[in-house]
Amino acid sequence: MSTDASTDKETVTATPQQYFDDVSVGDALPERRHRQSHVQIFRYSAATWNAHRIHYDKAYAESEGYPDVLTQSHLHGAFLTSLCTDWIGTEGRLESLSVEIRRYAIPGDMLICRGVVVEVTEGTDGFGRMHLDIEAVKESDGVVCAPGTAVIALPLRASAVPTKEHNHGSLPC
Q1: Is residue 119 part of a domain?
Q2: Which range marks the domain in which residue 69 is found?
Q3: pLDDT band at residue 165, thresholds of 50, 70 and 90?
């Protein structure tokens, strides 16, 4: 999911299956851009049962020293999760994700979510593991709001082709 900067509408685009064999250290994931609105932040608070006023009451947020309501930590995490899961295809797996919130974001801020492959490890289970550094960056000042790491498992090309051995003698229709 990404946001069209001209309309602030989120769109989902199908991603072809990624394979371990085609990914190298230094490869970047396609950036995803998210501009939060007051409504999105309020709805996310409601959906996650987060009743803290700092996420829906601007006057309260201002009394705490912030310029507006704050994007929830978990929403930063959701954006970074979708960065990974939108990229891996239907056979990939997100095995772990860790995010720290270091800077707040408010409605109207454009967050740029990006990631880079920092390590690859071939597995013996038909999957290889990609270790990623990920981050959500505030476009207006370039400050990293939420750095993190992720481990994703991508299928090996050799395991993507059905064989007699894997299908007990028959190929799928």
Answers
A1: yes
A2: 2-160
A3: very low
